[in-house]
Design brief:
The chain is built from ten helices and 13 strands. Helix 8 packs across helix 10.
Length: 313
C-alpha cells in the first residue's frame, strides 16, 4: 500500500466472509476510509457490529457506480473487494443467479477500468466441479450448478480484462469450504460445521451423509480473510485457491466437534439427496503460497475450537 490512509470498497460487506474481512481491514488499517455496499439479500447488519465506515444499500446488478462515487480518478479507491454474490447454490433460477452475479461484476470492472483500481473478487472452488484429487487453478472449469457457472463467467471476464490492461491487477480467490463467525444469518447455506454444532448442542446426533467418508477442504474464515488481504500485495493478476490445503472427512469433523463440545454423539447417517455433489474438495495452494505468501494458520482442530468458543463461549 502506498498510503497510510487507504480507501477501500467492500461489496457484500454485511455477508459472512466480507463482514469478517471488513472488520479485519478496519483493525489492520485504522485510518482507512471504508465503504460497504450491500443489499441485505444474503447479509445482516448485525455482522457489522463495531463498523465505523460508510454503508451504501444498493443492488449491484443495477448500481450506477459513477453516479454514487463520481469520476473514478477523483474517487481514488486503492482497492475494491468484491465479495457480493447470490451465494445460495439451491437457488435454481438460472437467469437471476447469472445475471446478478455477472452483471454486478461487469459494472464494477467498467468503473475501475479507467484508473486500473485493484480488484480482489470472490470466485469459488465450486468452479472445479466433481474432483477426486486436489484442485489446481489450471484445471478446466466443470460447474455442476448455476452458481458455479456464474463464477466461471466472472473468472473469464476477469482474465480478459487483465489481459487487455497489463497494469491492472485483478485477483480472483477461489474460496473452498469456509466456516466461522458471522455465518449464522445464512440459514441453510451456512457451513455444515455450524449446523452440526447446533445439532450437538441441542442434544441430537449430528446428521451427515452415508457413510461420512466424504472429504472437504474446510478453511477457517480467519485464514480466508488473511488470504484476501494478502491479495493487496499481489504483483500480477491471477486466480488463486484459498483453502486449508487439507481434505478432512465428515466423520473426522464429528469427532472434532465432540471433543470441542465435550460430547460423544455418534453420527446419524442418511442418504445424500443431491445428484450432483462434491464428494471431495482440496485446495492445491502452490500458486497461492507463491503469489500471495499465503499460509493457513488454522488446522481443522484449531479452527473448530476457536469457532466453538466464539459461538458458545
Amino acid at each position: 500500500m502506498t498510503t497510510s490512509k487507504p480507501k477501500f470498497i467492500i461489496t457484500g460487506g454485511a455477508g459472512f466472509i466480507a463482514s469478517n474481512l471488513t472488520l479485519a481491514l478496519q483493525e489492520k488499517f485504522p485510518d482507512a476510509n471504508l465503504t460497504v455496499i450491500d443489499d441485505f439479500r444474503s447479509g445482516d447488519f448485525k455482522n457489522l457490529a463495531g463498523y465505523r465506515g460508510d454503508f451504501v444499500a444498493e443492488n449491484l446488478a443495477t448500481f450506477d457506480w459513477r453516479e454514487k462515487f463520481g469520476d473514478p480518478a477523483a474517487a481514488g479507491f486503492d482497492a475494491i473487494f468484491h465479495l457480493a454474490s447470490i451465494t445460495d447454490t439451491t437457488l435454481h433460477d438460472q437467469f437471476i443467479q447469472v445475471h446478478d452475479n455477472v452483471e454486478s461484476f461487469r459494472r464494477l470492472l467498467n468503473f475501475a477500468r479507467p484508473t486500473n483500481t485493484r480488484i480482489i473478487y470472490a470466485s469459488s472452488a465450486a468452479t472445479y466441479g466433481p474432483a477426486s484429487e486436489s484442485s489446481v487453478e489450471s484445471n478446466g472449469a466443470a460447474p455442476a450448478n448455476v452458481y458455479a457457472f456464474s463464477k466461471v463467467i466472472m473468472d473469464n471476464i476477469a482474465r480478459h480484462a487483465a489481459a487487455e490492461s497489463r497494469d491492472w491487477i485483478i485477483v480472483g480467490l477461489r474460496y473452498f469450504n469456509v466456516y466461522g463467525p458471522r455465518e449464522a444469518h445464512k440459514g441453510v447455506p451456512a457451513s455444515m460445521i455450524y449446523h452440526l454444532a447446533q445439532q450437538i448442542k441441542a442434544g441430537k446426533r449430528p446428521r451427515i451423509f452415508k457413510h461420512g467418508e466424504q472429504k472437504r477442504d474446510f478453511v477457517y474464515v480467519k485464514d480466508a480473510v488473511e488470504g484476501t488481504i494478502r491479495a493487496l500485495g499481489a504483483k500480477r493478476s491471477g486466480i488463486y485457491n484459498v483453502g486449508s490445503g487439507q481434505a478432512r472427512s465428515f466423520n473426522e469433523l464429528v469427532e472434532i466437534l465432540n471433543k470441542c463440545l465435550g460430547t460423544d454423539f455418534q453420527p446419524d447417517y442418511f442418504d445424500n439427496p443431491h445428484a450432483h455433489y462434491q464428494n471431495f474438495t482440496q485446495a492445491d495452494l502452490t500458486s497461492t503460497r507463491k503469489a500471495l505468501s499465503y499460509e493457513p494458520r488454522f488446522s481443522l482442530e484449531d479452527g473448530v475450537r476457536d469457532y466453538m468458543q466464539w459461538l458458545f463461549g
